[in-house]
């Protein structure tokens, strides 16, 4: 696919992202995406065959962007605490932003998939965990982080983050101190 096709796919993902945030995954149709992207049905189906394909591309794009940002910062030998603080700030901001969350769409999409080793959500979990573990090891090796059970801390962060995101999409979480406290404690577990 040429540059024009890539631009069109990016525009489709951008328009669909807004819909998925507003409606979740299950309530978004290809017709909705056509209207939001300003495309005919044929124009949309040239690039994507289903809402699931569009959503999967959005998730892959978001995940690979975060992973490469962290890796690039480590390659530049930036302080581990700075990289961690930026990541934790992003996670905290996402936990507090109930209106711009893909949490509901995320869980609706993945709940319809079979539990297997090939499960897309499991793959995303491993990508995130690998990124976090490499950052934690990087911090320990640089002497900026305390010795820690790297896998356990990565899991604690991931499951805490995803838990708050999911729960805040289905129940009111009026206490902003919940994510702030969790992020603060995870940081204290690591940074010397």
TrEMBL record:
Residues 6-66 form the HTH tetR-type domain. Signal peptide: none annotated. SUPFAM superfamilies: Homeodomain-like, Tetracyclin repressor-like, C-terminal domain. GO terms for molecular function: DNA binding. Keywords: DNA-binding, Transcription, Transcription regulation. This is HTH tetR-type domain-containing protein. PROSITE patterns: HTH_TETR_2 (PS50977). The lineage of its organism: Bacteria, Bacillati, Bacillota, Clostridia, Lachnospirales. Residues 29-48 bind DNA. InterPro entries: Homeodomain-like_sf (IPR009057), HTH_TetR (IPR001647), Tet_transcr_reg_TetR-rel_C_sf (IPR036271). It holds the Pfam family TetR_N.
């Amino acid at each position: 696919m040429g540059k024009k096709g890539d631009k069109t796919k990016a525009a489709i993902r951008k328009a669909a992202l807004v819909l998925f945030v507003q409606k979740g995954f299950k309530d978004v149709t290809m017709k909705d995406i056509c209207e939001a992207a300003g495309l005919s049905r044929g124009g949309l189906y040239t690039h994507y065959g289903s809402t699931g394909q569009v959503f999967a591309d959005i998730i892959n794009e978001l995940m690979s962007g975060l992973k490469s940002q962290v890796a690039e910062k480590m390659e530049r030998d930036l302080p581990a605490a700075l990289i961690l603080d930026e990541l934790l700030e992003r996670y905290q901001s996402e936990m507090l932003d109930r209106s711009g969350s893909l949490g509901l769409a995320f869980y609706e999409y993945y709940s319809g998939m079979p539990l297997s080793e090939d499960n897309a959500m499991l793959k995303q979990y491993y990508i995130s965990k690998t990124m976090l573990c490499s950052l934690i090891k990087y911090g320990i090796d640089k002497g900026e982080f305390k010795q820690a059970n790297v896998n356990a801390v990565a899991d604690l962060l991931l499951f805490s983050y995803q838990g708050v995101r999911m729960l805040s999409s289905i129940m009111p979480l009026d206490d902003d101190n919940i994510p702030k406290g969790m992020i603060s404690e995870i940081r204290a577990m690591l940074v010397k």
